[in-house]
Amino acid sequence: LYDAIRYDEKRQPIADVILPTNFPLLEIIPANLELQEYEFDTPLSMQTSNEGKRFYSRLGRSLEEVDDRFDVVIVDCPPQLGFLTLTALTASTSVLVTVHPQMLDLMSMSQFLLMLGNFVRSIREKGAPVKIDWLRYLITRYEPSDVPQTQMLGFMQSILAEEILKNPMVKSTAISDAGLTKQTLYEVERANFNRDTYDRAIEALDAANFEIQGLLHRAWGRP
Predict the structure, then answer these.
(1) Is residue 49 over pLDDT 90?
(2) Which pTM value belongs to this model?
(3) Could you state, in order of their start, the residue ranges of all structural domains in the chain?
(4) Fewer Cβ in 10 A, N or C end of the chain?
(5) What integer pLDDT is reported at residue 223 of this predicted model?
(6) Residues 43-52: contacts with CB within 8 Å, 24+ apart?
């Protein structure tokens, strides 16, 4: 991804860094530690060029080059407040925030979103076109048998109301085991797992994904 948003003459069209995957119609732009150079390049470019001052538009403008190729683009951001996150947010039309149902995680998320909101207001004043169709919270690594987690989930549902997804993603050894072979749960064989464990995990995964799909369809004006 860095090659598509860098500031020097080595910048490439985003179409050149898109790679195919094993899934039909699903493609990927990989990222690695080199992408962190964007965090260092941007402040320097802001002092010397208009491109740097409009850093927030770099990813969005690059994605416009391939707009006719994709229905959905997912940008996976780390939970940090930097130029990368702001650049991704400006290019986004929807935001999905994952949170673990524990008090420390909730407090950390609240502080992060408060600071992010302040940054977004600042770049909006500079002309950044931040327009979000929807923002939702997805509960992850949820253990239904854990009473404190269940209580925290109820508390979050009471304060976040319609903004929290109805289907949490459960914690499952099936998901972690699939990750050992660098696969998703959709790629592994059911026969290689405890069937009940696999079925519970895939049911939760499908429910969360279909709920997100419904949000996308509504944003597009589809039933």
Answers:
(1) no
(2) 0.86
(3) 2-172
(4) C
(5) 67
(6) 43/83, 45/7, 49/7, 51/7, 52/7
